[in-house]
Amino acid sequence: MYYLSQVNVGATPVTFIGLAYILLSIVYFFFMIAWLVPRFNRLNPSAITMYILQIIFIPIPILISGSILVFQGWRLDPILQFANFLLFLVLIYLLIKDVTINVISRNRP
Predict the structure, then answer these.
(1) 18 and 67 Cβ atoms separated by less than 8 Å
(2) Phi, psi of 16 (to 5 degrees)
(3) Of 11, 59, 81, 108, whose CB is crowded by the most CB atoms within 10 A?
(4) Nearest alpha carbon to residue 87 among 104, 100, 69
């Protein structure tokens, strides 16, 4: 006999941060693949290895932590919710910094 488990998903701010983590990890995975494919022939093998490891191992913890926040975020203390919010701000800052540095370096002669 099969039993369906109860899944509690609340509409707290941490739930939305978890959804953003999930979305950002998926977008990051596809963005890095799209970024690496045209540059594959110009990079040396060690750089290719590092980029492939980065493509594999960076989105996985972000996706897992986003899933945990979506399904278990309603149980977190306010301090832990604030800590996750600060980590989200750091992630957004690094994303904006990397994109702007990439655009600036691409537009140089």
Answers:
(1) yes
(2) -70, -35
(3) 59
(4) 69
Domain boundaries, the chain: 13-107
Task: Report pLDDT digits (tens) over 9-20.
Answer: 677 888 888 899
* Cβ-contact 55, 29 below 8 angstroms: yes
Q: Cα separation of 1 and 19, whole Å?
A: 33
E strand residue ranges, the chain: none
Distances (CA, A) of 76 to 14, 21, 96: 8, 17, 28
Please name the residue that has the structure tokens 């690094």. Answer: 94
- State both tokens at 36: 């690496």
Quickly list DSSP for 11-22. Answer: --HHHHHHHHHH
Instruction: Report pTM.
Output: 0.74
